[in-house]
């Protein structure tokens, strides 16, 4: 199979898994807290990927020469981002619905150029500015301005998008010096699990029997979303540029909104649907416009 086609399929499957996982995340906190849920899902993701790491990557890593100190620093930072990106999603779901949490999370796509600009001096394309304005307008339609609790959840989800924007940028950076997607996916889950387990012991009541009560939701997000989907994300970034990957990943917001409506009966009125449409449109526009410009220059 063509490498780009393979990466495209990986990105599409990732978006579907991530989108539907928001429903499981919303349902999985009846008996445990957000940090406990996040730690459990990430640790299960690590266990899911560990056999693949040992069978596929381990021998290659031993044979190749790497700056393991630099790789470890990257992994620590990426593990931190994945830990609290996921944890903030869980906290947001306590106060707002699946559609809002997912769609505001998707704004990480628009934030990526800012991260690249401020940390790596890459130019910001003009399309980002109208995209941000459109996202803000869509956010006004999506959130309930008269409901303080919902606004809090939406704000947490918006802040969470910053974590994912850093995550996608630094994954791309790490792949350039350590091109082992399975190992990166597995170790970021392990590190992220530790980062959330320690504060969970302090701020939440961690009881194994309660964790088992949420086993269906944890299995879904642990094996599929934290395990295979994060691995597929990295495979998709191997052969596709950040822009097309970001466009495909942005579909998770729309998928999550539909899943929340169908499975959880979280009704979306016409105003909210319009807000979702505006944000998804802005995200896609921010990625398509630079590609269109490059194609014109080549022609």
Walk me through the structure.
By secondary structure, this protein is mainly alpha-helical. The chain has 13 helices and no strands. The mean pLDDT is 86.
List its salient traits.
single chain; 299 residues; 13 helices; globular
Write the layout of secondary structure elements.
Layout: H1 3-27, H2 34-63, H3 68-95, H4 98-105, H5 108-120, H6 128-142, H7 148-177, H8 181-203, H9 208-213, H10 215-239, H11 242-249, H12 251-264, H13 270-298
Helix pairs in contact: 1-10, 1-12, 2-3, 2-8, 2-10, 3-7, 3-8, 4-7, 4-12, 5-7, 6-13, 8-10, 11-13
Quick gist of this model?
This protein is mostly helical and 299 residues long.
Structural domain tally: 1
Write down the secondary-structure element order: HHHHHHHHHHHHH
Structural class: mainly alpha
- Mean of pLDDT: 86
Sheet-strand content, in percent, reads under 5%
State the separation between the terminal residues, measured CA to CA: 29 Å
Biggest sheet overview: none
Query: Would you report the number of β strands?
Result: 0
Q: Stretches where pLDDT falls below 50 for ≥5 residues?
A: none
Helix content: over 70%
Number of DSSP helical runs: 13
What does the overall shape look like? Answer: globular
From the alpha-carbon coordinates, what is the Rg to the nearest angstrom?
19 Å
């Amino acid at each position: 199979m063509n490498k780009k086609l393979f990466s495209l399929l990986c990105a599409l499957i990732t978006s579907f898994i991530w989108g539907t996982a928001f429903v499981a995340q919303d349902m999985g906190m009846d008996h445990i807290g957000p940090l406990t849920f996040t730690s459990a899902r990430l640790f299960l993701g690590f266990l899911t990927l560990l056999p693949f790491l040992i069978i596929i990557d381990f021998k290659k890593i031993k044979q190749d020469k790497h700056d393991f100190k630099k790789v470890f620093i990257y992994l620590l930072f990426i593990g931190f981002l994945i830990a609290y990106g996921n944890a903030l999603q869980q906290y947001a779901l306590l106060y707002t619905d699946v559609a809002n949490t997912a769609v505001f999370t998707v704004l990480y796509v628009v934030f990526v150029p800012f991260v690249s600009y401020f940390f790596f001096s890459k130019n910001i394309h003009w399309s980002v500015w109208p995209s941000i304005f459109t996202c803000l307008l869509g956010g006004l339609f999506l959130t309930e301005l008269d409901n303080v609790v919902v606004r809090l959840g939406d704000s947490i989800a918006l802040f969470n998008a910053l974590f994912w924007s850093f995550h996608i940028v630094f994954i791309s950076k790490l792949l350039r010096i350590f091109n082992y997607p399975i190992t990166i996916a597995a170790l970021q889950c392990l590190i992220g699990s530790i980062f959330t387990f320690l504060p969970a012991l302090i701020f939440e009541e961690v009881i194994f029997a309660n964790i088992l009560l949420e086993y269906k939701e944890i299995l879904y997000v642990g094996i599929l979303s934290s395990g295979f989907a994060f691995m597929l994300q990295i495979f998709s970034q191997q052969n596709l540029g950040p822009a097309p990957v970001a466009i495909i990943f942005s579909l998770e917001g729309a998928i999550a909104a539909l899943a929340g409506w169908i499975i959880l009966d979280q009704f979306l009125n016409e105003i909210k649907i319009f807000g979702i449409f505006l944000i998804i449109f802005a995200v896609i526009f921010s990625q398509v416009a630079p590609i269109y410009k490059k194609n014109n220059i080549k022609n």
